[in-house]
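Aim 2, interim progress. The first record below pairs a target sequence with its structure tokens.
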Amino acid sequence: MTEITVTRNVFTIRELPDKAGALEQVRTDLYDYIDSGQITEHLNGELYSALTGTYDGEISTKELSKRVGLTVEYSLSNCQGDGVAIYGTLNRSDAPNVNWHGASTATFSRNSHSHNYSHENCMTIALFSYDHHNGYEKNANTETTEKFAKQFRDLCRELARSGYAEIENLTSIDAAVEYLDNNLPRRFNENGSYAPTEFWGE
């Protein structure tokens, strides 16, 4: 049996004469590897900061719900209907950074758009004021509710922009180089394509 030895010149990412093509491949891979929970926790932290004026970094869904009674849902794939939506019940005491227009409680519930999408128009927002004379909550008037709701629709748009920025950061050129340096012994052909795994080495 004749033994054949194949020799091929392969490169690490830092050795490649032209890194652009290889890095775009890795960036695509990184996008597929993004943990949706990581983006959710990023958005949770940004929402909590907007509501309270206090930034505590990334926050779990359970912790956000415990602190302010809300959950975040998103779809950020650069497609029609993408965005961020907020659901739950928010009390004035939990959100001092919000302009409440004299109200005390707000609810964020799903509407018909939420069956297929996640964005600022997927929420029906209701606002309530406490009637101290009668001792119960009553619906805020339409004008006040709309002013309040506009804050949160604008906030959802800001959260979407922040989410896209975080995705861009996680898939940036610097992130791709760091990922290759720290996690993978990948080798590339001179044209930037992946070399067969048997040439990767250690």
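The second target in this work package is listed in the same format:
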Amino acid sequence: MLTFLGIIVLVIFIHELGHYVAARACGVAVDSFSIGFGKVLLKKKLWGTEWRLSLIPLGGYIKPRGEQDYNNAKDDPQSFWAVSAWRRAFIAVMGPVFNLLLPWPLYFMLLVGQPYPDVVVPDGAQAGRIGVVEAAVYSDRIARKMYSSIWEAATMPREEPMSIKEVGGPVAVYEFTEQARKRSVDTGDWGFLIDWIAFFSINLGVINLLPIPVLDGGHIGISVVEGIRRKKLAVKTRNVLNIIGAVLVFGIFALAISSDILRLAGI
């Protein structure tokens, strides 16, 4: 369970960090950065932001300055709505981008300083260690290979339609995490667990890029439209889109939970 929670927190932190870094780079103040929802368990004010760890760790968020002040009535230059639509799109896209880039540093940290594999070392000698440059090269190859494998699997012609069992919720994530952890413990090769973390992070990034309002992809799409029009959408229009997006996300979540229930029931 601790491994599962640790991976969830790591991947969510990386995602929200992408939004945070982009917001600060665009001149938008960030009032709070939370890992989890609900009751705040720990909090610390740093760099003008309140960093929080909340009770339910299945998500996270950043709260940009003036997020609820759609028309920037306070005329705050650091407000989210004070910056251009293109900067808002940049802030939205960087969360998924950080998730998509996570495999590279993960594999780098796994490899750097490790003995070279499959090298016979004479008695009394020490095995050579993988250096920084080599680790960077190897991690790039592995990450690219993972993306290639995912692309091949996604584009492979299917003989049967997609089943609900192929959609996974928290239970499925927990099961795959435990499988990867146990395999790493049994073999002494933590690459299996790193592979799973990288794959999970990529999935989170891709899902958040879906063009559904309330998800990052929806925010990007709306901001691009606003940038082209050079005009923000009406509040009523944005609210309607958010309701539609919330319904779609709820439907996806319900599908994932249904899959988890079938998984637990052994069906």
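The chain has a mean pLDDT of 91. This observation will shape the mutagenesis plan for the next reporting period.
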